[in-house]
From TrEMBL:
Gene coding for it: cbiD
Catalyzed chemical reaction(s): Co-precorrin-5B + S-adenosyl-L-methionine = Co-precorrin-6A + S-adenosyl-L-homocysteine
Family in the record: Belongs to the CbiD family.
Biological classification of the source: Bacteria, Bacillati, Bacillota, Desulfuribacillia, Desulfuribacillales
Gene Ontology MF: a single term: cobalt-precorrin-5B C1-methyltransferase activity
Pfam families per the UniProt record, alphabetical: CbiD (PF01888)
Protein name: Cobalt-precorrin-5B C(1)-methyltransferase
Recorded metabolic or biological pathway in which this protein acts: Cofactor biosynthesis; adenosylcobalamin biosynthesis; cob(II)yrinate a,c-diamide from sirohydrochlorin (anaerobic route): step 6/10
This enzyme's EC code(s): 2.1.1.195
Length: 380
């Protein structure tokens, strides 16, 4: 493998919040603190530097700078803060809440109920553990988390789409941020499916990114039914396959992504696989296109440029062929997932595919897409 540099792991916002809470309580106990040791969910102990810890009467506040390691995390270098106020009058309750820059949940389907701050269950337990370890028996406290830059940074996350308003979420299931972790990215994408189900959507539209979402919204599709997949189309379809509430999937996206699905490529990042020209060439060949058309397609720099060749040779029906193939690949994947999970008895999921060009023009779709689109309320 040569001398590859090992990527450095970091800590989740949940770990930082727990560390800041511990630092604040330590300060309340009269201890000066520049770092704290906390226990991660797997039992591992880690030492976390503390940016500041100050006390005023029965209240202390501490901050930890989020270190995401070598992961391109938008919350990297944010200051995650915890203010701990001791209760008086014998109130032994430990309350964990949010403040500035911590988002509030406004839509169902997430692991946090509507109306509460977006502090997920594992971080909440980690924070509670710090309080229970340090506070004497009979002592209670209110722990208020904050992130001064949270409202601004949240706009770079999926929080607005998920209905988490006003700031970031306090997240993490392991306490550790793995660099370039696809698992972590999927953890942020999959809740969209759960939320769509909770909002009563039985037909959902899967689209790789923001451009597809804007196009769907412009067609009149309810935002609650739109789920972004990024490049993880296959993983998101597998999640859909587990839920009996989902009876229809509309796959909607740029031809450069969805033509890969037509070829059975479900992870659409260029580092995984390509095959776009070959797939388009194969489908026009099945239409008995001239050899020169096939050669021209195989010489394309971008799949968008193929639109001119398709029009030149009168091969527009190829987009319906590609969409039909993509839908069948999705159906096959759903059946495979259910077979391995012994869940073949779940209701069948209808699948349709729509492909558009970079300029937003709808290139083509299959018959099932037209039916599912009508159910979603589109105006095509």
């Amino acid at each position: 493998m040569g001398n590859q540099t090992k990527l450095r792991s970091g800590y989740t916002t949940g770990t930082c919040a727990a560390a800041a809470t511990r630092a604040a309580i330590e300060r309340l106990l009269g201890n000066d603190v520049t770092e704290v040791t906390i226990t991660l969910p797997n039992g591992e102990q880690v030492r976390i530097p503390v940016a500041f810890a100050k006390i005023e009467g029965t209240t202390a506040k501490a901050g930890v700078i989020k270190d995401a390691g070598d992961d391109p995390d938008v919350t990297n270098n944010m200051c995650i803060q915890s203010e701990v106020q001791l209760h008086t009058g014998g109130n032994q309750e430990i309350v964990i809440t949010g403040g500035e820059g911590i988002g509030k949940v406004t839509k169902p389907g997430l692991s946090v109920p509507v109306g509460e701050y977006a502090i997920n269950p594992v971080p909440r337990q980690m924070i509670m553990q710090q309080a229970q370890e340090l506070l004497s028996s009979g002592m209670g406290a209110t722990i208020t988390l904050s992130a001064p830059e949270g409202a601004k940074i949240a706009n770079k996350t999926l929080n607005p789409k998920l209905g988490i308003i006003g700031g970031i979420s306090i997240l993490g299931t392991t306490g550790i941020v793995r660099p370039m972790s696809e698992e972590a990215y999927l953890d942020s994408l999959i809740p969209q499916i759960h939320q769509a189900i909770a909002m009563g959507q039985s037909v959902i539209a899967l689209t790789p990114g923001g451009m597809g979402e804007k196009k769907l919204l412009s067609l009149g599709v309810n935002s609650d039914a739109i789920v972004q997949t990024s490049n993880f189309i296959g993983a998101m379809i597998k999640e859909c396959a587990k839920h009996e509430q989902i009876r229809g999937i509309l796959l909607f996206g740029h031809i450069g992504k969805l033509i890969k699905v037509s070829a059975g490529i479900f992870h659409t990042h260029s580092k995984v696989a390509d095959g776009r020209r070959e797939t388009l060439a194969a489908h026009v060949a099945l239409m008995e296109a001239p050899v020169q058309a096939i050669r021209d397609i195989m010489a394309l720099n971008t799949i968008d440029a193929g639109k001119d060749i398709v029009e030149q040779y009168g091969l527009q029906q190829v987009y319906t062929s590609l969409a039909t193939a993509a839908s069948q690949r999705v159906i096959d994947l759903i059946e495979e997932v259910r077979y391995h999970n012994e869940a073949e008895s779940l209701p069948q999921i209808s699948v349709g595919t729509v492909m558009y060009a970079l300029d937003g023009q709808i290139l083509g779709y299959d018959l099932e897409a037209a039916d599912l689109g009508k159910e979603l309320g589109w105006r095509l």
